[in-house]
């Protein structure tokens, strides 16, 4: 049974890689770059434009599920009221994971600098972004964030 599972995982990885388009990784990384830049510019409408326009959009944050892009935008807008709000993604550590020709994950560590300008907090997170290719281009269908465990 273990051998069958190993063969399945290897074949799935090969199939997912074969189904991924040649520019898929670049498109997904570009989507995340634009998402981070919009957050850092405090441009909430630009953030919203990068999210899948669907009630099935999912953001998991602090152990809670937030459904729909408007819910995420409303919550993010409250955080951005802090004197300092800056995301510092470790893009050199990002791992691209193709799912098929029109979906892929990007997994990366990120530091969120937030709080008062005199002494902001630096919070470390792990982020997994599910990107999907739509008629409007690549969009974020789901974000899963968790506090990074230094251990």
Which characteristics define this entry?
7-stranded mixed sheet, 151 residues, single chain
Protein described:
- The structure is a single chain.
- With 151 residues, the protein is α+β, with helices and mostly antiparallel strands.
- The chain is 34% helix and 38% strand.
- The protein is built from four helices and seven strands; from the N terminus they run αααββαβββββ.
- Strands 1, 2, 3, 4, 5, 6 and 7 form a seven-stranded mixed β-sheet that branches.
- A hairpin with a 2-residue loop joins β6 and β7 (137-147).
- The radius of gyration is 17 Å and the shape is globular.
- The model is unreliable at 1-12 (pLDDT under 50).
Q: Outline the biggest β-sheet.
A: 7 strands, mixed
| Gross morphology | globular
Number of helices: 4
Sheet/helix structural class? alpha+beta
Low-pLDDT segments, ≥5 res: 1-12
Share of residues in strands: 35-45%
Q: What distance separates the N and C termini? A: 33 Å
Helix content: 25-40%
> What is the rounded Rg?
17 Å
Strand tally, please?
7
List the secondary-structure elements in sequence, H or E: HHHEEHEEEEE
Determine the mean pLDDT.
88
Quick take:
With 151 residues, the protein is an alpha+beta fold. 34% of the residues lie in helices and 38% in strands. The chain is globular and about 45 Å long.
